[in-house]
């Protein structure tokens, strides 16, 4: 697939230039050895300017991903009755994400006044690259070797190593894996870590002086291992119990600086980074509804970091009612100083409804309440937090729980050549409110010409900075032409009005082309 996106924005007293370019190539060969190559490229050029016309941010970004897939590496012909034969595949994806609009000295340790530690103008990220074996030993054994992604109740995670799965006749799959956690700053891992636990600032310190940003630590290898038990072979039930443990290596900073010295105090050796246990369950009854739930327990901090549950009820063929609960409490790498501070949880409770009135009309609505817990006492685990000589100063909120609430309504009309949508959203809380609505639509004429539009009004009320509160009114109008399947050229014009920036205009030209062979 090839796609090219080009965007340009211009206002009378200010301008924003944007361009994007997306390229994809997919090739498939229907032989004993099937292969696939994909590529996506985007280029963006834009300036963000203040209402006075001053450029405050300039970006020139180029992002390219290249994917490779090779299937049936064993070279066996596939036919009827051979679907359960052993199979070997290879998959890989590489991403290059550059930002040449940033000044070179932002990535240079020699320019302390502009340096952004960990920033790279052209990082290369090997997203995944592994060989996978399936259905070996009569369908019992499976494995992966290389850089791979995994997701379960513990969240998304990436590691370099090996994973082995064993399918048992008791509708249970056993899994074990081990290797090195993918961390930012290491080769082919990108500039910043995406998969490691929060709370420690790590990266590549090559060329840095010891006294320069000492809190920015050198990334080192992180050995890890884990195991899981998963239900398999039952169509209406999915369940997975997982465990993962990661170690830190290298030096970790204890203090910013030692007395009368510019060298920070550190300690080293292998030590715990994170240890977590997770469980997820999903069950479905086709005519009744479904339930989903999960949890993640942080062994190091001795508390649950995530809890969630969802129940869907099929109240007839056209109405679905849902209830959601989400609990989140921050957890950090064991080396992080944030483990010494109180991390209060947040809970969200919501209800949703979807009504498919007819084949063309559908309506939806929902409401939610968010609770945020606060520390209200001045006594935490044997320590007293007071302000000397100011005993009456309130350094903790008087209320232990704060509430935010919100809701949304929506409607959709759809037929072969026309789609219309209405959305209204409101969120209210102690820090601020946001509410608004918009109407959008798309019309396809003779299967080729595409007309699009959207008009809306939104109100922001910032209670912490009242001078930033504003009402925005805007619209988007577009026209396009489909000259082939998955191939379209279109032009959009956007105009927004609010008291903070006055008038802002944006014109955008899109060209998307898909080619197969």
Report what the structure shows.
By secondary structure, the protein is an all-beta fold. It is built from one helix and 31 strands. The protein has a 25-stranded antiparallel sheet that branches. Strand 27 (432-445) and strand 28 form a beta hairpin. The longest helix is centred in the first third of the chain and has 4 residues, at 136-139. The protein is globular and about 60 Å long.
What topology emerges from the helices and strands here?
Blueprint: E1 2-10, E2 15-19, E3 22-23, E4 34-49, E5 55-71, E6 87-99, E7 124-135, H1 136-139, E8 141-152, E9 155-167, E10 172-181, E11 202-203, E12 217-218, E13 223-231, E14 237-248, E15 252-255, E16 265-267, E17 271-285, E18 289-298, E19 303-314, E20 319-328, E21 346-355, E22 361-373, E23 379-380, E24 383-384, E25 401-414, E26 418-428, E27 432-445, E28 449-462, E29 470-484, E30 487-498, E31 502-513
Parallel strand pairs: 11-12
Antiparallel strand pairs: 1-2, 1-3, 1-31, 4-5, 5-6, 6-7, 7-8, 8-9, 9-10, 10-13, 13-14, 14-17, 15-16, 17-18, 18-19, 19-20, 20-21, 21-22, 22-25, 23-24, 25-26, 26-27, 27-28, 28-29, 29-30, 30-31
